[in-house]
Amino acid sequence: MCMVIFAPLFAIFAFATCGGYSGGLRLSVDCANKSESDLSIDIAFAYPFRLHQVNFDAPTCEGKRREKLSLIGDFSSSAEFFVTIAVFAFLYSLAATVVYIFFQNKYRENNRGPLIDFIVTVVFSFLWLVGSSAWAKGLSDVKIATDPDEVLLLMSACKQQSNKCLPVRSPVMSSLNTSVVFGFLNFILWAGNIWFVFKETGWHSSGQRHSPDTMEKQSSGYNQGGYNQDSYGPAGGYNQPGSYGQVGEYGQSQSYGQSGPTSFANQI
User: Fold this and answer.
1) Is the dihedral of CA 153, 76, 89, 188 positive or negative?
2) Which pLDDT tens digit goes with each residue over 7-48?
3) What is the per-residue pLDDT for 54?
4) 165, β-bridge pairs
5) In this structure, how many other beta carbons lie within 10 angstroms of the beta carbon of residue 130?
6) 244: number of CA atoms within 13 Å, CB side?
7) Of 19, 94, 251, 263, which sits 20 to 30 A from 68 (CA to CA)?
8) Which residue numbers in the chain have pLDDT < 50?
9) Opening angle at CA 19, ends 25 and 183, nearest 5
10) How far is residue 37's CA from residue 164's CA, in Å, rounded to a whole number?
11) Is the pTM of the predicted complex or chain greater than 0.70?
């Protein structure tokens, strides 16, 4: 139930906080000649963070000439990979929710549904771990590349001590930090769900059936052994009343005892 409720929500938060990001920074270049200064240089950037394509103009403090610069770095691969995982995880979790609720019988038919669900869950767990780790490293590089102090080093005017270059506003990265947190939360959620999905598969069911069968076979083997036979019981070889209680043989001896005195008396 937790998977059904939280998986789509966590996936939405992950790709929304990353894929919907847009930010910027503002710099100030105060030239020795005030007329050449520019106290509001705005630099905007957004997802997918191809910073080398973000261009801006800066004064050179050498007359009216301005130079065209660009930020450094391309971090689109890790960001797009992270968002792609989040989108597909969201779609699959929605589809799985519909199947769990409305098609439970077909889901358990021939054990194919649980097996497919188990494999997909393992794959998404691995992808969430890799994607979140890659995006965490990419975000760290984005923060460095968009640091106002680092951007000021790109301007030729800031290399002259007579000019004053100051950062006015730094980019806000709170939503991007949230995306990384939700990425690892998704990994924990999907990895924790592996055991519950595994319990639905035939592998877990066959393991449970094997253990009682083994115990039953062992118990039947002991019942068939020599310790449970009735050889020592009332009907056994040692309690056969016929061997010692044959009345016919000893009863006939009495007839021989009676015939002796009778014949002797007749002779007398």
Assistant:
1) negative
2) 899 999 999 999 999 999 999 999 988 888 999 999 999 999
3) 96
4) 29
5) 15
6) 5
7) 19
8) 1, 204, 209-217, 219-268
9) 110
10) 9
11) yes
Which parts of the chain fold into alpha helices (H)?
2-19, 76-102, 104-108, 112-145, 148-152, 174-198, 202-223, 241-244, 247-267
In angstroms, the Cα distances linking 2 to 93, 145, 243 are: 11, 39, 77
User: What does the radius of gyration of the chain's CA atoms come to, in whole angstroms?
Assistant: 46
Q: Answer whether 83's CB lies under 8 Å from 163's CB.
A: no
Give the span between the Cα atoms of 67 and 159, in whole angstroms. 14
β-strand pairing of 55-59 with 38-46: unpaired
Contact yes or no for 163/29 (Cβ under 8 A): yes
Q: Which residue has the tokens 């519909």?
A: 98
Amino acid making up residue 140: S
Q: Which helix (H) or strand (E) holds 46?
A: strand 38-46
Assign 3-class secondary structure to 189-231: HHHHHHHHHHCCCHHHHHHHHHHHHHHHHHHHHHHCCHHHCHH
Phi, psi (5° rounding) for residue 49?
A: 65, 45
* Token pair belonging to 176: 């991007």
In 173-186, which positions are buried (b, 16+ CB within 10 angstroms) versus exposed (e)?
beebebbbebbbbb
Are 39 and 28 in contact by the 8 Å Cβ rule? The answer is yes
Q: Dihedrals φ, ψ of 154, to 5°? A: -80, -20
Q: Longest Cα pair distance anywhere in the chain, in angstroms?
A: 179
Q: Which residues pair with 68 in a beta bridge?
A: 57
